[in-house]
Amino acid sequence: MKKLRVTVEGKVYEVLVEMLSEGPAPSAAPVVTPVSSAPVAAPTAAPVAAPAPAPAPRAAAGAGDVPSPLAGKVVSIDVKTGDSVAEGAQVATIEAMKMNTYIFAPKAGRVDAVLVNAGDGVEEGTVLLRIV
After folding, report:
1. Domain identity same for 120 and 75
2. Between 20 and 30 A from 2 (CA), which of 21, 48, 52, 91?
3. Could you tell me if residue 25 is inside a domain?
């Protein structure tokens, strides 16, 4: 058995821990004793596996391109080619994981091209429409 000090949500506890590599522990009930909330040195971090590599970067979208912020299904395109839009106007809706994400115009202008249709599946970064 080893006696350890553990901090949970700012409260410090002293606990007895059975070390399985040391053989069987005595049959006593575990003891948890609250102690004063004096600062305790941070424990050393356990080794962590390296993070997964980041996906390859996509080609940069043009200045007027409106990309999808996530992968999902196009629920609606709320503008047509030739429509004038104000900055911040809703231009499309994408559904992912049963939640709708609204896409807004990054700038004011005229819709030059709509590149997807309702029902299309899109990946993150896919250009939905172009505003000039």
Report:
1. yes
2. 48
3. yes
| Gap between the Cα atoms of 46 and 43, Å rounded | 9
Whether 94 and 104 have beta carbons less than 8 Å apart is answered as no
The stretch 86-103 carries a mean pLDDT of: 94
Residues 129/77, Cβ–Cβ less than 8 Å: yes
pTM: 0.53
Distance, in Å, from the CA atom of 82 to the CA atom of 90, rounded to the nearest integer, reads: 15
Q: What six digits make up the tokens of 66?
A: 């409106």
Give a yes or no: residue 56 inside a domain.
no
pLDDT in tens, 103-112: 999 999 999 9
Residue range of the domain that includes 22: 2-34
Identify the bridge partners of residue 111 per DSSP, sorted by sequence position. Answer: 131
What are the two backbone dihedrals, phi and then psi, of residue 28, each rounded to the nearest 5 degrees? -85, 150
| Cα distance between residue 93 and residue 38, in whole Å | 52
The Cα–Cα gap between 58 and 49 comes to 26
Residues 29 and 69 in one domain: no
Q: What is the CATH number of the domain that holds 117?
A: 2.40.50.100
